[in-house]
Amino acid sequence: MKALSQKSFQTRAVHAGERVPPADYVPVATPIWPTVGYLYENMDDLDEVFARNKPGQVYLRYSNPTVEAFETAVANLENAEAAQAYGSGMAAIHAALLAAGAKAGTSVVAAIDVYGATFTLLRSLFASLGVNIRMVNVSDHAEVEAAIKETGATVLFIESISNPLLKVADIPVLADIVHRYGASLLVDSTFASPYLINPLEHGADFVIHSATKYLSGHGDVLAGVIATSQANKNKLFELNKLIGAVLGPFEAWLALRGLKTLPLRMRQQNESALQVAGWLQSQTRVKKVNYPGLTEHPQHALAGRLFEGKGYGGVLSFEIDGADKAKVYRFMESLTIFLPATSLGDIYSLVLHPATSSHRGLTAEERARVGIPDSLLRLSVGIEAVDDILDDLKSALAKI
């Protein structure tokens, strides 16, 4: 057979520089592996990898070295046996529900004040597929237990810190209740991140993150991830081979790069958010501030125990006294540091109007039941100088 150098220009243009043999050096940073397929010296090796009898790669929809590096890092920070990455946080939530057994004829109990898209996923998509959905106040443990007992629920879905009302879930108590009835506890821990709490250590079965937020932290990647046991990872892996909600290698590389500064960013954002919450609480134009770091917050003591003094998160929400949607919009337009972007957990400070963005999919009646009025704003505090952040809020409040 001719060597590549002896083949035609056309063929050499296609194959030259590819499939170089492994080197005896190790890169300092994880490289990006954008390839879809992989080669083995013999087909028996490929067959063994397909059967998962030996480690290896076969196809991008199954796994990828760059994605696996990100999964390994998340599992390590969550003190989990394994992790499975996804193309978005919502894909991760959907997959976790499926892996935990949510299907026609089963019941799911969920916190009533979950993220709006999660609320809609449960009440619309899963309900339409024959899953019975019961929404409860997870701070009322008697209500939670009654709902699980009455429905025979397969899953309890909660958020470690709720979006956008900042309620803190008592994960150890809820895990005890759930497991007493043979159900699984799913915790969306996006707001807390592994910096504040590892829910698996408190009894959770699946820990879900929108890695778009604090894990990646720079507003430049869409991703989701689940930390769990190896047995659950195996279920998630097989599900994702069929669903195909994969995280791309470029996005995984960005998320892994962002993850390295998580403790530095979270420390600053936690400290600044506490100062912002305290300042807002002192303003006559502000009706109410929701932040677990405030002593008046109903779960302040619980948050202190669960988060072990590391902080209370970088997100808070507040109501402008007497403001309607128009006045709230004028406030948002007057801000210069806070960006009106539909996200959170970035290095940038962000402001969001839940009634018309994160919880837009809820009816007016559902928003009223959850406790999301038009006067409510959510702030995600970034890593800018806190004095500049406070000046921005002060100036915008003065203009309305």
Structure commentary:
- With 400 residues, the chain is of the alpha/beta class.
- The protein has two domains: 43-49 and 56-259, 3-Layer(aba) Sandwich (Aspartate Aminotransferase, domain 2); 262-398, Aspartate Aminotransferase, domain 1.
- The protein is 40% helix and 14% strand.
- It has a seven-stranded mixed β-sheet, with helices on both faces. A four-stranded antiparallel β-sheet has the order 8-9-11-10, with helices on one face.
- Helix 8 (193-196) links the parallel strand 5 (184-188) and strand 6.
- The longest helix is centred in the C-terminal third of the chain and has 20 residues, at 262-281.
- The radius of gyration is 23 Å and the shape is globular.
- It starts with 8 loop residues before the first helix and ends with a helix.
- The model has no long low-confidence stretch (mean pLDDT 95).
